[in-house]
Structure formats: C-alpha cells, structure tokens
Amino acid sequence: MSGSGGTRRRARELALSLLYELEFHPGHEGARAAAFWESHPAPPATRAYAQALAKGVMDHLDELDGRIAVHAEHWTLERMPLVDRNILRLATYELLYVAEVPERVAINEAIELAKAYGGEDSGRFVNGVLDRIRIAAPR
C-alpha cells in the first residue's frame, strides 16, 4: 500500500479488529493490545494511526456510545452486531476528534468497512447513523 490513504485504510481495519477483540476482554485492554500487535505486525505509520484510533475510541467510549445510541433509530447498542457497533465507534471518533480527516472520508471509509466486514445491510445502516451524527455535531 502506498500513500496515506492506503495506510489509513489499513489502520482502520486493524483498529476495528483490535476493538472487536477488546469487546471480549473488558478491563484487559493493555495486555490484549500488546498480544494483538504481536500477531498483527504493521508498518510504523499504520500501527501508530490504528493505535491512536483504538485508544481514542476506548478513551471516549461512553460518549461515543451515547451519540450512537441517540442516532441509531430503533436499535440499541446491545442489539447491534459487534462489527457494526465498532465501525460506528471508530467513525464517530474520527468525526468528532480527528479534524484532519474530512467528514465524508470518515463516513465513506466506515461504509467500506461495513461492506467488507459486516452483514448485508451494514453499509446502509452505518451510513444512516453516521450521517445523523454528522448533521447533529458538525465541525
């Protein structure tokens, strides 16, 4: 992969995988993250961005989940597939806290992740929730 676009896309995939894994091991984030990186080597820039995303999501988890819950019409966080929930967390973090990533890029990247790793309707679902979050909290 070349360029920051490919690096960031791969970083988002890695961050998603790490967040997914952390769902099953709450309270053990440090140890699980260390083990994750041992089995998922990545170039330094990719790893750095993935780590920043995962840490940002974990540091702001309650706020992110609150925003997602408000804008995920007819869905509770508990009912959402784990992949969709973590894609939404990742993209919402980028929307709110990563100013150098344009809103449309954050949303489009999340849709691509949802299409690749989620269910049949995940892309549409993620798009709808993130668009409502974007409208409610413009930069």
Descriptive key words:
7 helices; 76% helix; mainly alpha; single chain; 139 residues; globular
Describe it:
With 139 residues, this protein is mostly helical. The chain is 76% helix and 0% strand. The chain contains seven helices and no strands. Helix 3 crosses helix 5. The termini are far apart.
Topology:
Blueprint: H1 3-23, H2 29-39, H3 44-59, H4 61-71, H5 82-97, H6 103-117, H7 122-136
Q: Helical proportion? A: over 70%
Task: Tell me what portion of residues adopts beta-strand conformation.
Answer: under 5%
Shape: globular
Beginning-to-end CA distance, first to last residue: 30 Å
Number of strands: 0
> Low-confidence runs (pLDDT<50, min 5 residues)?
none
Gyration radius, in Å: 14 Å
Mean pLDDT: 91
Main β-sheet description: none
N-to-C series of helices and strands: HHHHHHH
Count of helical segments?
Answer: 7
In oligomeric terms, what are we looking at?
single chain
- Structural class given helices, strands, pairing? mainly alpha
Task: Describe the structure in brief.
This protein has 139 residues and is mainly α. The chain has 7 helices and no strands.
